[in-house]
Design brief:
- Strands 1-2-3-4 form a 4-stranded parallel beta sheet, sandwiched between helices.
- The chain has a single domain, classed as Alpha/Beta hydrolase fold, catalytic domain (Rossmann fold).
- The protein is an alpha/beta fold and 196 residues long.
């Protein structure tokens, strides 16, 4: 994430006193495993007694890959925002076109086109926030026929074994910009549940 997570970081700081450290990665030329290893390197360098992880879209899948492959020494919770952890029909549609697969890159192909069979069995709590305002590129490409955020269907975000989930009337990018979403992120990171 980059500048697009500024509002989320500001809300978390003002409402919960949480400082956001941004992890930027290149999904085009690197595999999901390579990006996850880089994320683990960043997390290992943090001098904090507790580290929470927030991932939006593909970033949430990268977070899971990191935690599945590496041990984190600091405790903390995880929140995934509109992350298609079970694969992405929008990405599958784009991949049908030769240029689409190249534009999406290796990490997307790893995580969204050939997602690993996932079930969360770790003691680290994971909360899922999915959007239900169907405005976005994905809605133009395919007909979801179910609740979605315009890019990712709610069903694509449902990680078996996750601690909690909530749906908010937001678009895919709105999940990063909304004060309501930031409040729910803060609720889960502080208490392990939504809707407080």
């Amino acid at each position: 994430m980059g500048a697009e997570c500024y509002l989320l970081g500001r809300h978390l700081w003002r409402e919960r006193g949480l400082r956001l450290t941004v992890f930027r990665y290149h999904s085009v030329h690197q595999s999901a495993v390579q990006v996850a290893a880089q994320l683990h390197g960043l997390l290992s360098s943090l001098q904090a007694p507790q580290v929470h992880l927030i991932g939006h879209s593909l970033g949430g899948s990268i977070v899971l890959t990191c935690l599945e492959r590496h041990v984190m020494r600091q405790p903390g919770r995880v929140v995934l925002l509109g992350s298609p952890v079970l694969g992405s029909r929008s990405a599958e549609y784009l991949a049908r076109w030769g240029w689409g697969r190249r534009v999406m890159g290796r990490a997307v192909a790893d995580e969204l086109l050939c997602p690993p069979a996932r079930r969360w069995d770790s003691s680290r709590q994971v909360g899922i926030i999915a959007g239900t305002c169907p405005v976005g590129l994905g809605e133009l490409l395919i007909r979801f026929g179910e609740p979605n955020d315009g890019t990712v269907a709610v069903s694509e975000t449902r990680l078996p074994g996750a601690t909690a989930s909530i749906e908010l009337p937001l678009t895919h990018m709105g999940l990063l910009w909304s004060r309501a979403a930031a409040r729910e992120v803060g609720n889960f990171l502080a208490h392990g549940r939504f809707g407080l």
